[in-house]
Amino acid sequence: MHELSLVKHLLRLVDREAIAAGGGRVTRIRVLAGEFSGVEPDLLQSAFRIAAPATRAHDASLEIKVIPLEAECRGCGERTRVVDFRFVCARCGSNQIDVLSGEEFLLESITLLDEVDRGRHEFEGDRRGEPRPVRETSS
Amino acid sequence: MNERSVSVGQSILAESASRAEEFRARMTEAGTFVVNLMSSPGSGKTSLLEATAQRLGDTYRLACLVGDIATNRDSDRLRRYMPAVQLTTGGACRLEPPLVEAGFQKLGLDQPADFLFIENVGNLVCPASFDLGEHMRIVVLAVTEGDDKPSKYPKAFRTSTACVLSKIDLLPYVPFQIDSAIADARSIRPDLEFFPLSAISGKGLDFWLNALIHYRNSRILNGCTK
Prior knowledge:
The complex is a heterodimer of chains A (139) and B (226). Helices cover 26% and strands 28% of the residues of chain A. Chain A has 139 residues and is an alpha+beta fold. Chain A has a domain at 3-68 and 101-115: 2-Layer Sandwich (hypothetical protein PF0899 fold). In chain A, the strands form two sheets. A three-stranded mixed sheet of chain A has the order 2-1-6, covered by helices on one side. A three-stranded antiparallel sheet of chain A has the order 4-3-5, with no helix packed on it. The longest helix of chain B is centred in the first third of the chain and has 17 residues, at 14-30. The N and C termini of chain B lie far apart (67 Å). The model of chain B has no long low-confidence stretch (mean pLDDT 94). The A-B interface holds A 1-2, 5-6, 9-10, 12-13, 17-18, 21, 27-28, 31, 36-39, 84-88, 95-96, 104-116 and B 1-16, 92-94, 96, 125-126, 128-130, 151, 154-155, 158, 186-190.
């Protein structure tokens, strides 16, 4: 049950990337979660709904793509799916396999919406060019 | 209104991982070998650390950080043998790098330790996902648990270098099969090393302690400082 903590890490990264890309409201977040990443997609969604309202991603959708656990056999070179977390080659049975995917927990992309804000110039003028905080939209 | 997609492709735990990496580098530099102990609650992590510290404490400088959701009981027990700081997570199910860094500060060591033990919160799920900056991760499995536990919590076993099988003095009274547990765990991590021992009777402890020293020597160049 560490998804709330994971979501906080995610939202911090989303915020940083959004600022680096010029700001705006986040409407979509795409995440890749490996089967063996320790991330439970349903719990991540619930945690996201709890943590997102206070951030620029408050009405963003969270899309989680689960990445299968796959490995390459050092013996026969077979690219093999790791089933039931038995780390053995499906072809030759060797346990000398290297994991290729399925352990990652990545932010793949974010979608940003530029907001033309009527009060913006006035607001920025008041704050002398400080970064504009994310406005809570009432829509 | 103009929508645009920004490609990121970055690990969500990258920041946490880089803090852990910095801590590990700092500890390596100081000659401190860091061990992260994970297990379910009640498997005997604190007893293992007590027994370890009693025997290693004459030769090596030791310190520990102890994670629990509440109480200072474990650090009170361990402080008899080495400097110990309790990390109470207030409900969180695992330790993360910032908590470890703060706890290490709080230890206030005059001289660097040779070993820093981090006793994680009793939980086989969440701690497995967080690198704390350790040199070695150890999973403790008591023989009073099921010998099929590795398959149920594969990440804890996959990410550990060694497994301590604790409480082996109780083997005559429980159905635990050591061979089955080892086979089960090695289907997840083929090179997992095993240390069957009893912190109470002392059986298996020498093998464990010698291995700990060996692991330290393979990662840390400085000799012991005591």
